[in-house]
Design a protein that fits this description.
There is one protein chain. The N and C termini lie far apart (92 Å). Strand 2 and strand 3 form a beta hairpin. The radius of gyration is 23 Å and the shape is globular. It folds into two domains: 30 residues; 237 residues, no CATH class. By secondary structure, it is mostly helical. Helix content is 57%, strand content 3%. The C terminus is likely disordered. Bound molecules: zinc ion.
């Protein structure tokens, strides 16, 4: 009987040890398993999907709109030069693209830092600082890996690895990439992630000659003017008024400059885009009433 008890104790101790070891290994696994290098690979799949599906609108070719891309790259370069940017050398911040869709007031950044800006947003904003603010916010989502982590939870890291290494049939990859794109352009960032992206945008902007609270400029304009083209930034709590207050408080605490920078190039940037569809029809609906 005693021998049996000793065996039982041994068995129990070994079992517990094995479980404990298993849990230790599990807990020590890096979180997320999907690293920033894979974010870039995942981003490439989304880029292919955007370019091939054309669902978001045609992407302006840099060789056809060199002036527009010069302006946009100049703005992105200033932000990415901030000391608070972690993945400057890894992420694809130098491959920013403009989507020709005047109806959409939005911009987004894929995992791995592929930035997309809609012509509608560039036409809508009144100052270069405000676009820099929106871009800073989007870059923060990539830097903080918000969409990457969310997409991993939704699709599973294993399936995403398959997507990246192309072991899945092309049609399946397209479907995944499209649903990831829908996530990015959709409404699914959480309140905490939005607040964090706002907060980081202040940090990035404070290292530039733009107003460090410039992200608030966009919220102020759209909440003043409303409309049904509400983009991702306003889609989640907290309400835009609270976000303006929070951004201004962060800027005040940081002691950074809230003076608007030089917007001398802004009108030239807007003019370098394809002509607006509604500009040719002055009698059409005043989608941009009060814009000028
Ligand atoms: Zn956001």
């Amino acid at each position: 009987m005693q021998a049996f008890l000793i065996k039982l104790v041994k068995f129990t101790v070994i079992t517990i040890a094995v479980f404990a070891l298993g849990w230790t290994v599990f807990i020590l696994l890096p979180d997320p398993v999907f690293g920033p290098e894979q974010d870039v690979e995942l981003g490439k799949q989304v880029v292919m999907s955007i370019e091939e599906s054309g669902e978001e609108g045609p992407v302006l070719a840099p060789e056809e709109y060199p002036e527009a891309y010069e302006h946009l790259n100049r703005i992105v370069d200033k932000l990415v030069a901030s000391s608070a940017i972690e993945y400057r050398d890894l992420f694809a911040y130098d491959q920013v693209r403009i989507i020709h869709n005047d109806e959409v007031l939005n911009a987004f950044c894929t995992p791995g830092g592929f930035i997309y800006v809609y012509t509608g947003l560039i036409h809508y904003l009144e100052a270069e600082d405000h676009l820099a603010g929106v871009l800073g916010h989007e870059i923060a989502h990539a830097e903080r890996r918000h969409s990457s982590i969310r997409i991993q939870k939704q699709f599973g890291a294993d399936r995403l690895f398959e997507l990246i290494v192309l072991t899945t049939p092309i049609s399946m990859r397209d479907a995944w990439a499209l649903s990831i794109l829908a996530e990015l352009t959709g409404l699914s960032y959480g309140r905490g992630q939005e607040a964090e992206a706002d907060d980081y945008s202040v940090r990035y902007l404070s290292d530039t000659d733009y107003a460090c609270n410039a992200t608030a400029g966009f919220f102020e304009k759209i909440s003043r003017e409303g409309g049904d083209r509400v983009p991702e930034f306003l889609s989640t709590h907290p309400a835009s008024e609270n976000r303006v207050t929070d951004i201004n408080r962060t800027a005040l605490n940081a002691g950074c400059s809230t003076e608007l920078g030089d917007s001398a190039n802004w009108a030239a940037f807007q003019a370098s885009l394809p002509p607006r569809a509604d500009a040719a029809e002055p009698s059409g609906p005043a989608a941009d009433a009060g814009d000028r």
